[in-house]
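Question: Send over one sample?
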Amino acid sequence: MANSVFVISSNTSFLTLIKTTIDKRFQVSIFEDKKSALSSIFDAFPDLIILEINLINDPLIRIINDIKSDSIFGQIGILCIVPDDFDFPSWDALLVDDYIRLSDVEKDLNLRIELFFQRRQRIMEVNPLTRLPGNISIQKQIDQRILKGEKFGIAYADIDYFKPYNDKYGFGRGDEVIRMLGRLIFNMVRLDQPQNSFIGHIGGDDFIYIMDIDLIEQTSQKIVEQFDKIIPIFYEQSDRERGFIESIDRSGKLMRFALMSLSVGITHNKYKKFQHYGQISEVLAEMKQHAKSIKGSYLIIDRRK
């Protein structure tokens, strides 16, 4: 799959230059309107954004910094193209991954894009299926919050009966379910807490998300409810009507399995003090297993003091 590149500019001559210069290996989308570009960024999650900055107080700088400061969208690369006489501020004030002066675009643009993707491949850790941060980022996010003394809630979401579904319908259909759940969690968490929330993909059908303690239970309930509404569409009509599928279990026997449901275990550090990621991981696993022991979709929050 080609790397996706968004180009944002209302400057016709600049867009013409980019269109005639950029390599056809990249999947390029052009946006002349900032609002439509932002909407598409949050929906499509491009790999790289190219934009033109002309002034030190250019409104685009704030948009760039907001994107790069976000724990999820900060993974998107930003390449800015500036006038030859552009006076750069401190890099703390302009959070870009790279820049090119306008006179060097024809010569260097494709090389800089290629360098960005090679560099990101070496240093970034995201799940390729959902584009959400993976295990290293999850652990780092939790450890940083503990170190700062933040109070937070954390949830572990896991699909019940996913393996039988995967075995019967195939990995392609299974991947669609995982992508759906990743997008569902992402949208619900960001809708209820746009700032300082975090969503990570542990792997397979397991997800982690972090929110304020007073929000996470209500948001989790909405995630569970929406999952139950959506999941039947991933089954053929005959399986939906029966309410189960037949698939092979781990011992090789043909068994009946209920339609997929969602188990969510939640813990927080309101009453107990966690020292590191491992302690939280143990409690989350315990909560998740308890939720999975209940038939159907279920969430449980650790209320122990």
Observations:
- The chain is about 45% helix and 20% strand.
- The longest helix spans residues 171-192.
- Residues 4-123 form a domain with the Rossmann fold fold (CATH 3.40.50.2300).
- Residues 248 and 288 are 24 Å apart (CA to CA).
